[in-house]
């Protein structure tokens, strides 16, 4: 049985790209249906993320003229990540698999066919990984690379050069649905789910129309979520800094005492310097300790599930 697929596409002020993207997406889906790779009930679900332009009227129009197109409109702009989540959760009930792809179709639609092949082979998560980021502006490319490295150094499992172009099986979706957190960073969260996963090549194109909806501010907020949602390591760095300062203050103490004995300093300087460094290090240390507790509260308050069951082999009571 081929899977019933839903292609979820978040749209924020995409009136310029939407008609063209909708054509491409539905031609693609028709092809997949005729090849028997997905069931005829498969759909495209456009999620309107509180757009201020004609995005929603266009989606409504597409829905009324094209059987393959559904629409979901959010009450306001909640951001890329939450919009994707809304679409996936809405589609979860009736889909065997979900593919998420940006409405500007910068990602390689043909890679979805490969994703479906991987799904048929038994993979639950298939990531689209950018071959080359040459289509991205220089600044975006370098900041992204630095960010991936930073994440790695903090022990966050994230897929290099993967944005939010991916396929999730129903089982992976059900697992994802158990994460109630508000600060969503799907690129970090999904690798944590476990399950069999693999990657396919994604050849990035330049935006055909409209401009990037990711302002610098939105990008920075996403980056902060990408780190603070997964690790409290920055808090440990405060402790490390406190310890380093304490060490420096010991060295300073030696220097200050020597200067005092040798009468190299003005009166009052020694005690001032010593207390400055000492209090500084104690403050940092105690902040770090308090931070550790806050970090624990932060992790606990998310109420993330502890595990996901991949398979359950169980005999019925009356099987014996
Ligand atoms: N998007 C969204 N809500 C937002 C910002 C962006 O749903 O607040 C959508 C946007 O319509 C697009 C996708 O997220 O489908 C990626 O945005 P964009 O292409 O502007 O980002 P870039 O490719 O430049 O990183
Ligand atoms: Mg884009």
- SSE order in H/E notation? EHEHEHEHEHEHHEHHH
CATH superfamily of the largest domain: Spore Coat Polysaccharide Biosynthesis Protein SpsA, Chain A
CATH architecture of the largest domain: Alpha-Beta Complex
The number of helices is 10
Helix percentage? 40-55%
Bound molecules: uridine-5'-diphosphate, magnesium ion
Largest sheet: 7 strands, mixed
Instruction: List low-confidence stretches.
Output: none
Tally of individual domains:
2
Oligomerization: single chain
Ends distance: 31 Å
Count of distinct strands: 7
The computed structural class is alpha/beta
Residue-averaged pLDDT, rounded?
90
Tell me the radius of gyration: 26 Å
CATH C-level label of the largest domain: Alpha Beta
Keywords: Glycosyltransferase, Membrane, Transferase, Transmembrane, Transmembrane helix
Protein name: Glycosyltransferase, group 2 family protein
InterPro entries: Glyco_trans_2-like (IPR001173), Glycosyltransferase_2 (IPR050256), Nucleotide-diphossugar_trans (IPR029044)
Transmembrane segments: 237-258, 270-294
In short:
It contains ten helices and seven strands.
What are the key terms here?
Spore Coat Polysaccharide Biosynthesis Protein SpsA, Chain A, seven-stranded mixed beta sheet, binds uridine-5'-diphosphate, binds magnesium ion
Q: How would you sum up this structure, described in words?
A:
With 320 residues, the chain is an alpha/beta fold. It has two domains: 5-230 and 304-319, Alpha-Beta Complex (Spore Coat Polysaccharide Biosynthesis Protein SpsA, Chain A), CATH 3.90.550.10; 233-302. Helix content is 49%, strand content 13%. It has ten helices and seven strands. Strands 3-2-1-4-6-5-7 form a seven-stranded mixed beta sheet, with helices on both faces. The protein is elongated and about 90 Å long. The relative contact order is 0.11.
